[in-house]
Amino acid sequence: MHPIIIFSKMDFSQSNLFGYIEDLQELTIIERPVRRSLKTPEEIERLTVDEELSDIERAVYLLSSGQDIQGTSVVANLPVLMRQSPAETLRRVLPKIREVLHVAGVEMQLTAAVSFLTVLQEELVSIHTYSHSFLHIILQNLEHRDAGVSNAWLETLLAVIEALPKETIRHEILNPLVSKAQLSQSLQSRLVSCKIMGKLASKFEAHIIKRDILPLVKSLCQDVEYEVRTFMCRQLEHIAQGIGTELTKTVVLPELVELARDEGSSVRLAAFETLVNLLDMLDADDRSQTVLPLVKSFCEKSFKADESILVSLSFHLGKLCNGLYGIFTPEQHLRFFEFYKKLSTLGLQQENGHNDNQLQLQNLEQEKKYILVRKNCAYNFPAMIVFVDPKNFHLELYSIFFCLCHDPEVPVRYTMALSFYEVAKLLNSGVYTIHKELVTLLQDESLEVLDALVGHLPEILELMTNAGENSGSENKLLSIPDLITALTTAEQRAATSLKWRTHEKLLQKYACLPHIISSDQIYYRFLHRMLTIILTNNVLPVQKAAARTLCVYLRYNRKQEQRHEVIQKLIEQLGQGKSYWNRLRFLDTCEFIMELFSKSFFCKYFFLPVLELTHDPVANVRMKLCYLLPKVKSTLKIPTDKHLLQQLELCIRKLLCQEKDKDVLTIVKKTVLELDRMEISVDAFQKRFYENDLLDQEKERQEHLLLEMVYLMSTICPFFSSKEDKKSKLVRSQSFSTQALHPKYSTLDKCPNSATGYTSSGMGKNCMLSFTGK
To answer: Which stretches are transmembrane (predicted)?
Structure first.
């Protein structure tokens, strides 16, 4: 076969053409086996079923004489049959399934386990019928030779145990379990017994567990196979919860201590993790005399002879340190803290070509283990702040925090980004000390890190702002220039990536910025960027996120000339834009305007530009406008907006008479019916509109208050100092704390520190914009 050569420029000369034809002929050979794999007429005949058969008869036929794939289809359809004909399914189909499962393949077995579980969860039969008809089939298949099949049936059984009455469990499951757990039984049988006993511990009283289950537990803890000891060890937590603290201390704890010294590393690991999970059930004496020595032993061996426990130890260290906090001596407290410090830089600190514990990274697996250890240290960092005390953060933990935020591996920095909000909450008024690390993570080269940080970005920024105000304005002001640069850099990096969901999320969270930085900073660094994104980005969710955030910025802008400029740009560049896509985004923006601003604001600036789009040459724009018209009409108040209502009615009449697109016309007719049913609110309050009117009145009051404040500041107190300006901003924010926002952007509700807006009444009349039609 000739190799297929890729040319930078294809040569179709006669000498080369035959070579290409040969290659194409050889490629057709590849298709021949595919054609041979098609079903022959005989095979199709065997797969064909009489269409006149009922669902039950068809199921029985396919299970009796069909192929495996057909039988599997019947088993998957069992819940449907149970809903349609439960009695007939139990009488005719289920026995056939039981018979077929003896020789069924893995796929049918897994499908049956899922179907049986679905029948239970959807309660398609009573629990008595289920235990009589289905339970025996489940128990028969528990010890399937395939481990995956066995686990699937086991998961189904564990779910069934939750619903079964105690007597059924005792006779059908517990009594046979005594023989199944014996050493003479197969390994798979003993492993299954371990998990079942862990589940049974929650179903019976302590004295029954002590009499019937604990002897089996002890036997399995001493099993000759390490897999069984490991399985049983992990079930001891459930056993302990079932028997209570007293029996746990006398029965379970000694078994755990012995298993913690087992020769099998997986057994020791299971014992350690179970001990950590049982800390809450142990008293101070047990913790100090039993658990603490074992933990110290694990810590010592983790770097020497037992590295298998190192990852688990690093993961549980925060829980351990805080669980044992009350029994630590100052020396032990320091020792465990030093151990955490050592783990947090494991594999990083170098001295003369060697790290602290003189270990070289021998292979990739060890390097991955060390990365996972540092990641776990990042996960436990908030717990270590509690352990050390937030007051000692700067002295004891800041260096570790710095290292973890600058770790060379993405998973470590990603985990720190996820934990950053918890760290900020714990530091409280001292949170401003970590603003440099916030800037670092915002500018991280990995978008995964940025995505993790952005989730709680509004809350983090609010904490930092409040801490700056409480501890002195200098700290806050010093952090802002770096912060703004980091925020703009983060947005630009997200915009140039292919991860548009991260970009969308970032833009949504940036809606909190009016509560963090000044109106001018937002105007010059963020607001115009949002408009650019709406105009140039190709991803609709990103454009909508930018549009809403822009509307929030407009809502909180404090300068009339800036607001007017933005409004004018929205109308000219979006509403009257050359691209129909921009005009569609204008309608999206108007929806956000109606949500965030008062009715009078929308009517003053956007009502007529929206109606202009009834003449749009693109059907999709007119169609979207028709869907929006009911919301547009709801912004009107009579008699104040009577002339706008007349304009709306005129536009609708034109659409009805002149619209040529049949799809748009259909929507216009539906919209007309909806508009006819709508009632328009009047200037005076009405009971049926009371809540909406009250909310709108509050928005209008806020907009009016903003104008008054801006006017006073510009005419009476132009020489306000920055500190006084902040105080006035805080006073104003208290009157804006009742704003209503969309739940998707609820972060704004958590930052009621400042607000701005605009109004159409009183002193704002001389600012009205003029609109020219297209």
So the answer is: none
